[in-house]
Give the backbone structure.
Amino acid sequence: MTRFYLFLLLLALCPMESAFSQDNEREDVEKVGDIFDFVLSQGSSYEWLRYLCKNVGHRIAGSPGGAAAVEYCKQMLDSIGCDKVWLQEVKVPYWRRGNVAECKIINSAVVGSTPLQVCALGFSAPTPSTGISAKVIEVNSISELEKMSDFKVKGKIVFLNKPMDPTKISTFSAYGEAGAMRTMGPNIAAKKGALGAIVRSLTLKADDVPHSGVTIFDSGNEIPAVGIGIQSANNLSEILAKDPNTKVFLQLDCKKYPDQITYNVIGEIKGSEFPNEIIAVGGHIDSWDLGEGAHDDGAGCVQSMEVLRTFKKMGYKPKRTIRCVLFANEENGLRGGTKYADEAKSKNEKHIAAIESDGGGHSPRGFSMDANTDILSNAYKKTQKYREILAPYGFYELVTGGSGADIGPLKSQNVVLYGYRPDSQRYFDYHHTVNDTFENVHKRELELGAAGISSLIYLIDKYGF
Amino acid sequence: MTRFYLFLLLLALCPMESAFSQDNEREDVEKVGDIFDFVLSQGSSYEWLRYLCKNVGHRIAGSPGGAAAVEYCKQMLDSIGCDKVWLQEVKVPYWRRGNVAECKIINSAVVGSTPLQVCALGFSAPTPSTGISAKVIEVNSISELEKMSDFKVKGKIVFLNKPMDPTKISTFSAYGEAGAMRTMGPNIAAKKGALGAIVRSLTLKADDVPHSGVTIFDSGNEIPAVGIGIQSANNLSEILAKDPNTKVFLQLDCKKYPDQITYNVIGEIKGSEFPNEIIAVGGHIDSWDLGEGAHDDGAGCVQSMEVLRTFKKMGYKPKRTIRCVLFANEENGLRGGTKYADEAKSKNEKHIAAIESDGGGHSPRGFSMDANTDILSNAYKKTQKYREILAPYGFYELVTGGSGADIGPLKSQNVVLYGYRPDSQRYFDYHHTVNDTFENVHKRELELGAAGISSLIYLIDKYGF
């Protein structure tokens, strides 16, 4: 389909538009086409991601990898020719995985010693250096655990075993539904006197790769807690069904450390007409300490940097200030997003929109939107027009709802929030695992996302709210 | 989003509908939801594909692998509980790759002997057993080759080097544009006296894996012709620019054999009300003789079989006859599709619709449609309503245009043709290569396609044309 044809199609859909808006629409279709052409043929995001994954590697906030990522992204933003690049200090909680994560079935009438594939969950307590051994009690939902008497839980390892629902079309919906098993389950188990917690990995892939992720404890309530691979979880469940007296051995040497200093990395192109109106675009620079943080969220970082590079290379001077923000500590604290919003407020900055890409580097599906009710409806109507221009590039959806953890704190400042929504089918194959690597990100899919986000920002910048 | 909410949404979009159609619409939304639930939680397509890839392997029509595939798919259709399963004999051309495909740069002032990654194209002639050595002439388009004097081409190896366009959003469009370099280029070169042809692989992935595929010669005009990996193509082009006298050595032992007998594999569920109205769904059972034919087109075969299994397992009795057709010889002759349409005509069968899945096993995007002009418009309007029901499952697009090579011959019999359109970004990473393997097909993506095709057929069956 030629762009002129696309333009005619749009005209046919809205025949009452004025000549002025027709001219604008034609220019928009052209410009969006130019942006996609540029990113798909001359983009940098894929090579940036290669470096971030292969040379920096994983980068939990406050870690040496985290510092390397901050330095690399700052250098890249400098190289783009931003008007300003700076670091915003953030104090973050710091936890290290250590070297030991051993878990095995012992003392079962059904099998002998059988290893289980596990990894520590973020903020898990360590076990004593000799490990712990205990009977296991399986629960299949948070409410089942909550209703259970302390007596049944005390001195045991609680096995939180709820599969993600394969019939949910968006895997993020299935994740949302099952996620409390990991984030809340171990803390509830600890309060009932459990010695440890084993949580079924949040994935729909039938492999045996354990998934990490944060689990949240009341202070002083921490117990050892691990994610377990799906096959191991199924094995453990079957064996428990046959022999409820089965014991499990668990050994972890992860540890919490004092808070560390790291940074939000920020670069901007100053607006030519309304420099005080800011459009922010970002991802989170930290990643879990397994794999390479490729989809989560290296992809979102390099796509956000690509927006600025694309505008600079194409010689497009935005009317408003376009700011790329790579947030610290999304995975285990959200301190970067909180700090950014707090400072924006204290400096009286006016953000009109913020876009986050934190759903992986897969093919585009569309955007979500969120804002205070008094501004959402008007912004949605405007954005629906932009989405029509983007539909031929795979941006079919515009839904309302949560649009990114890091930009969430800006909502109360009357900012229109957008979340980039890629195809979700593969995301939880890799999420928080050793398999979240560069090889699993597809160049063109990553670039389509970067081009779509750039195009949305071009349109928001042109028309404002 | 609940199904009831989906239904309300559809109501809101078409408030003038009658109570009758509202009841129907509600039932349709429910039934489509049930189909997706079933396929995503109890589907067989992924395990069928595993067997077809890992135990049968590649299966060019007429080969032993081809025979194994026919037998396996027939057995699986039998196991579903079809009302009838049969084989339709097809005589197919037969060509074998052999064991040798060597290509290297020799006698260059720039480099010494440098290997190039190549594979024979389907119907390529062999070289003499000692190979051929010749100077190379590079062309970048079919028209450039056509305009070239025979004198410049004669005695040389023609290097057809046209990259696919990365700015095309659908990679199938980019493939369509560059495809003639492979299908027609070697024959044109041969007519001008070329000794051989080297064709840049039709892919956007910057690796060095050569892609095969058919090349069509006038009978008696065959010359040795290979596909070359992208990195090798770029190297060769650079070296030729520096030293136009560079020679290449080429050795191939592929060979054409007499025609062989193979089969279209067909299974059907008889319609309960209109058994003489047939809805066909299919893919092609043959694959190129590299890799495992996973995306091309094992995926389409198992999705088509899944339609029948889903209806049987859900206890749904279609009004019309639903027929699964696994076509022979799509890759190098299209004899299966031709035979099927010929026999349908001679038996006076009435097909109302035919759906083909031959675009890979990736996440759904929608459908294409094709039909004679007098019936297309009405069918398109009806289908657009069905697509609205399917949109929440990722079926966003309904476009007109070619809808599958195998079902194409049915068009003249007033059949409405549909092509399943998955996301295209990764398809040409694997297409016709050693990498078209089971591991590169994603279970849920494959199943979403199968469920969407099943749902479309449920709706066509319910309402007819």
